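In response to the reviewer comment on reproducibility (Comment 2.3), we provide here a single inverse folding case reported in full, input and output, so that an independent group could reproduce the run without further information from us. The structure tokens appear first.
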């Protein structure tokens, strides 16, 4: 499988994402549902703590990826839903740290929403991975 970033500009490099990623020769695609700060029993955790919620959402996403034998370098698209952009950006480095060795960087969409499935949740992340 080959992946190639399509970046007509350079500004996205400051945020560790690509404008587009072209995948050729990939044989399997994994579409991950949104992952949030939810326990294994389905209960929301860490109310009002964006950093803790982002860490757990990323950990839950990794669990799903690993279940399918994927890892961060396979991720080509992330969608991040948040109810609070300001607080998310304060902890955006937690997401960037996961992508430091990923080339090309995945496409990332950040979406503001009024609320998530549980009112305590501040952030949710979904992914598409290809290998």
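Designed residues, in position order:
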């Amino acid at each position: 499988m080959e992946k190639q970033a399509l970046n007509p500009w350079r500004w996205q490099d400051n945020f560790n994402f690509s404008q587009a990623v072209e995948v050729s020769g990939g044989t399997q695609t994994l579409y991950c549902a949104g992952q949030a700060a939810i326990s294994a029993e389905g209960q929301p955790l860490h109310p009002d703590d964006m950093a803790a919620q982002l860490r757990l959402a990323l950990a839950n996403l990794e669990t799903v990826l690993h279940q399918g034998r994927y890892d961060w370098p396979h991720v080509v698209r992330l969608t991040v839903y948040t109810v609070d952009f300001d607080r998310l950006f304060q902890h955006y480095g937690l997401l960037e740290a996961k992508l430091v060795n990923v080339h090309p960087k995945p496409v990332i969409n950040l979406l503001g929403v009024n609320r998530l499935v549980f009112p305590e949740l501040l952030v949710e992340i979904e992914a598409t991975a290809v290998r």
